[in-house]
Amino acid sequence: MKQRTPVVVNILIILVILFVVYYMFVQNTSFLASPFFWGTVVISCILALIHGAIGDLIENNKFQKLTAEEKAEYLVNKKRPYLRTLWESAFKKQSAKEEKDILIDHGFDGIMELDNQLPKWWLGLFWFGVAYCIVYLFAYAFTDFGDPLKEYDEEYKAQIASIAEYEKTAPQITIETAEYSADNIAEGEIVFKTNCVSCHMDGGKGGIGPNLTDNAWINQPEKTLFKNVFHVVWNGSPNNPAMVAFGKNGQLTGKDIQNVAAYIYHINQEQKPITVAEGGAAPQGTPANWEK
Ligand code: HEC
């Protein structure tokens, strides 16, 4: 009679499978606090215990029918630790005598084919793989487990959050530390389109706010164009409350203003001014003579 798998081992296997299934469908370990999970665990354990008890009954019954010799052998076998038997049977080799029984009826050049038993460790892995595949297929088809788009979305959000966290603690950019960089133009354009375009119009050609592409400037508190824009956007205009102090009010960060100043520098210095004939606003203020 074969040695049976102890109930504890069965229960352990059940726990592992339940964990894998729940993890794949819930996708985090929050189920560990759920009564449904623990309910399933308890019910499964009870079933495993009942299964074990029925097995015991059948085993007793069979035992009665054994010969004295078989009984003795059974008792010796039963005393061997289960894990050791499992380990040994996983790597068991067929004996030469058994080989004769599994000889398949064809061969070539004296080389014969044997119908060998597959090693237990291999079979174990195989069945685990099959079970895992089934669970995985269901999880993949009916939940968003393993969905690259969802994972991308989550990671993207986590990164944005960590950038925001970093910027909270990173030193603010001020008019002293702000620097022009061509790399900031694209981001500056976005800031402009969100916050400034309503008054300064497309491309900064001017409307309620002055034309930002020409060389006429009402406000010239700084010597260079870049710092001048930073100054006006940070502090607002002393003459006209329509141009609010975006920086001082906290509407824009120093970084945003550094970006938008780069964009305005770009449209003012690296592109042709948008003239009245092209739909731009007429120059306001006095011609500027910016330092480099
Ligand atoms: C509500 C309308 C309005 C919005 C929005 C606005 N501005 Fe202005 N802006 C003005 C007005 C009006 C002036 C002219 C101020 C003055 O007469 O001194 C001005 C002046 C300026 C000047 C100085 C121009 C000069 O000739 O002195 C700059 C630079 C400027 N704005 C940039 C921006 C930027 C960048 C934004 C977006 C972050 C922005 N503005 C948003 C209305 C606005």
TrEMBL record:
Keywords: Heme, Iron, Metal-binding. It comes from the Bacteria. It holds the Pfam family FixP_N. GO terms for molecular function: electron transfer activity; heme binding; metal ion binding. The keyword Cell inner membrane does not apply. InterPro entries: CcoP_N, CcoP_N_sf, Cyt_c-like_dom, Cyt_c-like_dom_sf, Cytochrome_c_Oxidase_Subunit. This is Cytochrome c oxidase subunit III. It comes from Chryseobacterium taklimakanense. The gene is ccoP.
